[in-house]
Amino acid sequence: MNKSEKLHTRLIERREFITNSIKAAGAITLPVAFLAVPETGRSNNRALQTGSYTVQDVINIILKEIPGAPFKQTVDTIKSGNADQQVTGIVTTMFPTVDVIREAVKKNANFIIAHEPSFYNHTDDTKWVAQNDVLKQKQELLQQHQIVIWRFHDYWHAYRPDGILYGVLKKAGWLSYFQPGKWVINIPSVSLRDLVDHCKTSLGISHVKVIGDLSQKCEKIGLIPGGAGGQIQITLAENEKPDVLIVGEVHEWETAEYIRDGRLLGSKTSLVVLGHSVSEEPGMEWLVEWLQPRVPGLPITHIASGDPFIWM
Amino acid sequence: MNKSEKLHTRLIERREFITNSIKAAGAITLPVAFLAVPETGRSNNRALQTGSYTVQDVINIILKEIPGAPFKQTVDTIKSGNADQQVTGIVTTMFPTVDVIREAVKKNANFIIAHEPSFYNHTDDTKWVAQNDVLKQKQELLQQHQIVIWRFHDYWHAYRPDGILYGVLKKAGWLSYFQPGKWVINIPSVSLRDLVDHCKTSLGISHVKVIGDLSQKCEKIGLIPGGAGGQIQITLAENEKPDVLIVGEVHEWETAEYIRDGRLLGSKTSLVVLGHSVSEEPGMEWLVEWLQPRVPGLPITHIASGDPFIWM
Fold first, then answer.
1. A171-183 pLDDT per residue, tens
2. Contacts with A137 (C-beta within 8 Å, 6 or more apart), sequence order
3. H-assigned helices in chain B
4. Strands of the sheet with B111-114, listed across from one edge
């Protein structure tokens, strides 16, 4: 494995690490579905012949193309509803927010494929916070409209090329610079200020946070959408020494302070924090294009969950 | 224990949880100092008599006033230098950044008391990222100037009243609303917009992120400076149903999405995210006032590490 491949493997392993840590600590009850291995290869032919798909049919069709799937351990489980439900339409999104659910209902789509959790923690443990009224109301809303949510996180990152990264590169107009297996691209030289403007305009982002000299020239870009955590982000910065590291979300005590200190010590690596949701949304938008020919006849729409914040 | 006390206990326990998880996973080498129990009660009298203090003297003087100290497990260890070093001056700060270190050197202060990590991860594991050039250069800078860093996190939160919370309430002008042991205060009714303005002005913060209706009236405020994590933040929101929850940092997939969904489902609870560093800095500023009479003759200064970001 080269460094980039190792980093990608660690991105997946990180999720396992979190899971193992939680299990070892014994503090959290895992949802029953957590260790379930989705069934593959069943009824795909029937679905394609009849043009009628259950949730499980769609999942099977997707998993057939993911290297190593099904995984023994993954957070990519059904979070709401029933795998046998007939799908009336699919919505892809980052976070299956209450707004996204209501919009899906309006579109008569009863299957949401979401990249991130439904219930406010990585494993979607519904007992993580006792007596969570918001969570209960969300479950009632989902039940009322018989909406199925499936998380498509580990598998989409394990696809080659990584489905999220590919979607982001595509939307940013950077596909021609992409080298499979790499988290670094080299683009024509541009100032950090213009790079930030390009990210905001091309990805439809209103506000970002930056550490760096805005007049600095950038060519080598480390790009890790989402919230991969400091260990992965800092490792990429150390291994590749890019001009700028672009990520979705940081722990401020990890990557932000590392970059701040690094620059004070002479490193050129700047940091752009796009926001978690908006940084990966293009990957769930790209999923529509990827999935549509694989489930002909099924209506698929992307609904952006969007930046939750007002910036003041 | 009432709910607030339970929450406070969990704030401390969370750190233990993280530590246990890391140990159980076996993936990370703990620094040797991690389990060290600082010595107490030694040489305090000598220090007070001579007006000359070692680092350990200062730590002992502080720990005498922390309930339950010394803790068997804590991240509050010496991160750089030697406990026997004579202290020429103390600097308190949130993050011992390279800028803070250089400023301390200028002030001839060789002991930094920092609330947050020195080396970009919670346990200050220096092997967390292999071949970390930035970390090595920082260690060289510290060694060159013989700077000792001690972390004062778990103990300052365990002080009664919590040293960080008290400092923030003091700086925000909210001490008169404070009820010991509570993470909620009731203030005269104010719009969310005016509350945000007050936080920015009184705490010296340039930018914040908000989820909520800016015209909404706020009286009951849940206040958890720093990055306590979604489980603690959401538990407070559920238990207390405040008008607004003010925090330092969130995981976007936890508290931010919980608040966004909650409001879409009729909850009134808004969210203000101040930034990790700036949200707790007043607690390290307050430490100067608290500590000075306990170490007469020693120069103590607060240096704010500040918001690392440019907001664009």
1. 999 999 999 989 9
2. B265, B266
3. 3-25, 44-50, 55-63, 98-106, 133-144, 154-158, 163-172, 192-203, 230-240, 257-264, 276-291
4. B78-80, B148-151, B111-114, B90-93, B300-302
| B residues 88-117 lying closer than 8 A (beta carbon) to A | 95, 97-99, 116-117
Closest alpha carbon within chain A to B234: A129
Distance from CA of A186 to the nearest CA of B (A): 23
Q: At CA B278, angle to CA A235 and CA B153, rounded to 5?
A: 70
Whole-number mean pLDDT of chain B? Answer: 89
Contact status of B225 with chain A (Cβ, < 8 Å)? no
* Helix, strand and coil percent figures for chain B, each rounded to 5: 45, 15, 40
A45 token code pair: 């032919």
The whole-number pLDDT of residue A22 equals 34
Q: Collect all residues of chain A within an 8 Å Cβ-Cβ radius of residue B132.
A: 234, 238
The dihedral through the CA atoms of A259, A121, A184, B130 has a sign that is: positive
Q: Give the model's confidence band at B9: pLDDT under 50 very low, under 70 low, under 90 confident, else very high.
A: low
Residues of A in contact with B209 (CB under 8 A): 309-312
Kind plus residue range of the DSSP H or E element containing A93: strand A90-93
Is there a contact between B263 and B189 (Cβ–Cβ < 8 Å)?
A: no
Phi-psi group of B214: left, alpha or beta (phi > 0 → left; psi -120 to 50 → alpha; rest → beta): alpha
**Would you say residue A5 has pLDDT above 60?**
no
Q: Is B211 on the interface with A (CB under 8 A)?
A: yes
Q: Report pLDDT for B181.
A: 86
Q: pLDDT tens digit string along A119-155?
A: 999 999 999 999 999 999 999 999 999 999 999 999 9
Q: A27 falls in which pLDDT band (50, 70, 90)?
A: very low
